[in-house]
From TrEMBL:
CDD domains according to UniProt: TA_like
Similarity-based family: Belongs to the threonine aldolase family.
UniProt xrefs under NCBIfam families: GntG_guanitoxin
InterPro entries named among the record's database cross-references: ArAA_b-elim_lyase/Thr_aldolase (IPR001597), Low_specificity_L-TA-like (IPR023603), PyrdxlP-dep_Trfase (IPR015424), PyrdxlP-dep_Trfase_major (IPR015421), PyrdxlP-dep_Trfase_small (IPR015422)
Family matches, as Gene3D superfamilies: Aspartate Aminotransferase, domain 1, Type I PLP-dependent aspartate aminotransferase-like (Major domain)
Cofactor(s) the record lists: pyridoxal 5'-phosphate
The protein's name: PLP-dependent transferase
Keyword RNA-binding (UniProt): no
UniProt keyword Transferase present: yes
Database matches in Pfam families: Beta_elim_lyase
All copies of domain Aromatic amino acid beta-eliminating lyase/threonine aldolase, residue ranges: 4-287
Any one GO MF annotation of this record: transferase activity
Length: 338
């Protein structure tokens, strides 16, 4: 039994999901004739109270197209220093949109409306002008932390006053909704564009969706083509998405519970300096200075437990759909014996 907690992207489609994929009705999505893709897009748009949604092969592409929709070259995207769009999308903000990131020194990937206000450059001609604020919920590098929705509303007010776009990287928004008992409509009500991922907590093999109203999404289809993201009979993948929306959202609470239980065991280990607060399915912890990270990782590997290092003696575990109760019990036992 291999326990793979490197990411919630390691899941494989379940029997039910594969059946749904196999029986999907498909067509050429480049002609916008794939009924299953259309169904998934309509369903997600409606869930968020928006007019339009577009299926993407990856979350990075959905985010980068969103950034391009909101910005012109030379402009600025205000985001946290931990943001996925800044750290893990190959400098795409500069490459695709010719824009720069104004980084906020937030807390676990989250920041305040006051900090946004302070990050907007003056209008003097020699400054780069902000055109977009980007929020990530849950935060990836921040250890699956969930935003306070009130603060998001406060930031939205700043955006509206300053005519800034407001984009949500919701790769793990599903986890936040379940953990905080929030709704998709709440989020659709404040953000101009939202990207959600189907292949993380929801267990699909591929797929992200960008959601927004007609006006802002007008160029999304041609930008997806420009980015090389047009797909053909992709309803087989959209069917997995529809299945996941029906079956795999509420169960995220199990992943969260197991992550918290792992955290409780880690807190008691003498080899571990600190476990970051656990709100959803991500566990980030720091080893004591005298513990060698590579050695710690390979010791776990010998026991068929795979996790990843994040640098500076910090390690990460992510619980997911394919992490079973049996694996959980084994993991807790092995950790206690370290
Ligand atoms: C995974 C992830 C993405 C998108 O990643 P892809 O691998 O391109 O699908 C975007 N934002 C966050 C916060 C993520 O965790």
């Amino acid at each position: 039994m291999i326990i793979d907690l490197r990411s919630d992207t390691v899941t494989k489609p379940s029997k039910g999901m594969l059946d749904a994929m196999q029986s999907a009705h498909v067509g050429d999505d480049v002609f916008r004739e794939d009924p299953t893709v259309n169904q998934l897009e309509e369903r997600l748009a409606k869930m968020f109270g928006k007019q339009k949604a577009l299926f993407f092969p990856s979350g990075s592409m959905a985010n980068q197209v969103a950034i391009k929709l909101h910005t012109n070259p030379g402009e600025q995207v205000i985001c946290d220093k931990y943001a996925h769009i800044y750290n893990y999308e190959v400098g795409g903000v500069a490459f695709h949109s010719g824009a720069s990131c104004k980084l906020i020194d937030g807390d676990r990937g989250m920041f305040t409306a006051e900090q946004v206000k302070a990050s907007i450059n003056p209008t003097d001609y020699y400054y780069s002008q902000a055109s977009l604020v980007e929020v990530e919920n849950t935060t990836n590098k921040g250890g699956g932390a969930c935003w306070d929705f009130q603060e998001i509303e406060n930031i939205n007010k700043i955006c509206k006053t300053n005519t800034l776009g407001f984009h949500l990287d919701g790769a793990r928004l599903w986890n936040a909704l379940v953990a905080k008992n929030e709704t998709t409509l709440q989020y659709g009500g404040v953000f101009d564009t939202i990207s959600v991922c189907l292949s993380k907590g929801l267990g699909c093999p591929v797929g992200s969706v960008l959601i927004g109203d007609e006006e802002i999404m007008k160029k999304s289809l041609s930008l997806r083509k420009l980015f090389g993201g047009n797909m053909r009979q992709v309803g087989y993948l959209a069917a997995a998405g529809l299945y996941a929306l029906d079956h795999n959202i509420e169960r995220l609470a199990e992943d969260h519970k197991r992550a918290k239980e792992i955290g409780e065991v880690l807190t008691k280990l003498s080899t571990i300096k600190k476990v970051e607060p656990i709100e959803t399915n991500i566990v980030i912890f720091e080893l004591n200075d005298d513990v060698d990270e590579a050695q710690f990782l390979s010791k776990l590997k010998e026991k068929n437990i795979h996790i990843i290092g994040m640098g500076s003696n910090k390690l990460r575990m992510v619980t997911h759909l394919d992490y079973t109760e049996q694996m959980h019990e084994k993991l807790l036992g092995e950790l206690k014996s370290i």
